[in-house]
Amino acid sequence: MDYIFSKGTCKKGDLYKIMLDKLKENGWKDISSKAATDFVVLSSKGNTGNKNLLLNLRDTNNAAANSIVSTDFCAMSYRLQDTYIPGAGGKAAGISIVNSTQKGSTGTVKAKDGSVFTGTVDALYHLKISTAPTAVGGLAGVGYKTAVGAGNYSSETLITQAGTTAEILLGNGITVLLSVGADQSFSIDEVYDVNGTALVEVAGTFGRPAIAWNNLFIAPVANANIALGKDTVLTYYIYADASKLILVLEFPSATTFLPVVIYMGETDTKYVQDSDARGLIVATSIQAPAVSGLYVNNASDGMPSVQQPYVLTAYTVLPPIDPNVAEKYMIAPIYYGSAVESFRGILDGIKNCAYTGSNLVSGDTMVTENEKYHCVITHTSGNSSFPSRGILVRIE
Asked: Which of 124, 291, 317, 338 has its CA 20 to 30 A from that of 12?
């Protein structure tokens, strides 16, 4: 399999969405039935088609604070779960409850995957607002229209008093926009199908509900309380498939930050059997759990299962100096395993090269007979999951 990275730029605050979108483009689905409590739960059958991979993600840190999307802080968080069963109703409804508190704002009913909800079955929406509305766009209340963009709201005034409820029967192909007139809030409080059965967001059931959230830093900061402006423009190299996401982040020179590398998902090259979600890993060049340490979800098949993720060691074989007298560099795979389990697999998609302090710089290019690699020298902040700071990703 070819692991070729694509390059892009984005504001720091947009990175989380880019990560999720890239995974969804490659077969992962958000099956979370209640985003407020379960957050994002991405599921995939993996590159082999027979796995049950899960990534439980959120844009806030391990204390559920300081979103990397809306604040200047730099820690999102994750949990490696073994199973997840969506709650009844929320998944079937495919509805994300939306709220708005902006004067004259428009809220859009969206499906679980973030797309504008167009409905697959007729559904009855119950709408409420918290304070009495004032006129906006000729409408003194909350109304709807059937298309995104320009157009008139329905002449029907659906809600005119605080705390009152209105109903809209919507069918396939209808897009809903809601508008309020003053600084007030509105929400979709209840959704029913045509038979009157409530379709509400219901929390799902995790196989490991008690495990802690782990920080995942998108900038090389020392802790979750250090900020980098959310409008800071980053350069990223990204690769995703049905098993994994690999991300390289580079920062403006004024920040003095060197690159960050993140690897999450399941590898393709394995020397053991890892059924379902057992082989999921998370590796990072910043604030890793141990020197050359990465988290793995569970023991491989044939070994006793564990109750929470644990640390394996990444290792490689590199020369003491590079390049050699013929000006050739060694490009080495990164293995992972432990003294108990021996070697379990290879971190497909990234390579290590020896970094001696001055032989390489971020942005260098290495070329083999058929491949071209982009080199980064990762920032030092806490432990790194990778044996060498020199990381190579393929760009051609």
From this structure: 291
